[in-house]
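We emphasize that the prediction below concerns an isolated chain of 494 residues; any contacts that depend on oligomerization or on bound cofactors are therefore not represented. The input was used exactly as deposited, without trimming of termini.
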Amino acid sequence: MMSQFFDATSDAILFLNHDFVVTFLNLRAEQILAPRGQILGINLWEAFPEAAVPSSPYWINYHRTMDEGIATRFEAFYGEPLNLWFDIHAMPSDDGIILFFRDITRGRANREALEVKTREVEQQLAEIESLYRTAPIGLALFDLDDYHYVRLNDRQAAFFGLKPEEIVGRTLTEMAPIEGLRELFDQVATGVPVINFPLEGSVVTDPDNYRYWTVSYFPVTGPDGTIQGITAASLEITQQKKAEQALMESEKLAAVGRLAASIAHEINNPLESVTNLLYLARHSTRIEDAQEFILQAETELQRVAHITSQTLRFHKQASSPQEVSGEALMESVRSVFHGKLVNASATVKERHRDAPPVRCFEGEIRQVISNLVGNALDAMPHGGGNLLLRSRKAHDPRTGAAMLVLTVADNGSGIPKEVQEKIFRPFYTTKGIVGTGLGLWISQEIVDRHRGKLSVRSREGKGTVFTIALPYDAVSREAQATSSEANRIDTLKP
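Result of the prediction step, given as a token string:
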């Protein structure tokens, strides 16, 4: 009856007498130990010689239970022919000891595999955490409850001159009181990401240092697909912006140099005429002749005054946008280039259709037209060429909005197709050491700031057409404030 009870249990059971001879084993024990063969009535140490080592856990624990009457429990591996891991309970009895044991080989392998996987996951999490904390871009996570900082890395905290733990728990608007930013987060919270949103300004710990960033915001979804937070990735581009500004300033200085040379050439001829006319008037014997020479000198001086006036208008940059017609923009540039056009024997054709004035920064748009006209002159054939200056009203084909279109076209050498793809890149030039490679890049920047488009069409040996398309409200009120004031941060208060 007792044997049937032992056979029904899931544990393997084995009885040893005081001489460590096996006196009983149940069905489960026979199944587990079957590779060893029949062991009933055989000394345990003879049946399992690998365990008969004084340093083995079997020898130590069985002798302790047998000799001291103390129950023991241990896990141990037994090699050939079993190759199994066992979880063993040794219990003292009047006749010797009773062993309760289980095959835990598979469970132990699963546990070891789980431990390995756990260590791998922990290592990966540690690596991810290290990357997160030391990333060269600012990273932050916000909740949806008033947009509190849940976590952020060191670079993001450095924007405020603080440590991450000093910011966690504070709200977005508390740290960055930017007009419209909360509404932007409301948009992201609906599932619409915002990518490369420009921000600029200074932080409270360094108010004299104006800085620039681009930030991308993404919704964070849970396993069920619901939005649970917002993550932000911020990249500071202050040095890049400063470098771009330095390049633009250098191009402006170069433009001033070219303008000065043009003006010197333009006023030299009439001044020479005035000198000669005054000489003739001084040595004239008839007062009528002297008066005629003086009138001619006065005409030449008026020409100098006109050139000077156009030059000042060309170079002056208003602090606020002005309304100006396409014809006036073209005429001011043509006047400055008059001498070069005459020397190049270029034929200038102008066509200006009635169009409303455009609201823009005159000086900047004139700089663009000047760059295009200068490039056209360089591309024209020696001994003559045709330059077309045109302004007209048109409509944006996508939105239907009215636009002023300015065209500068020439019949010069044209631009190869592979070069057209590169001409708006900074420092790219086909003029060798005499070119800076900045003119068209800056021109495109200026047109972009006016929410317009600068495009080119060209065929080798046929000529080139540059088109400037400007919306009539090219400078928005936000742009009027600082040219990019819409995304300005005056101060980020901690």
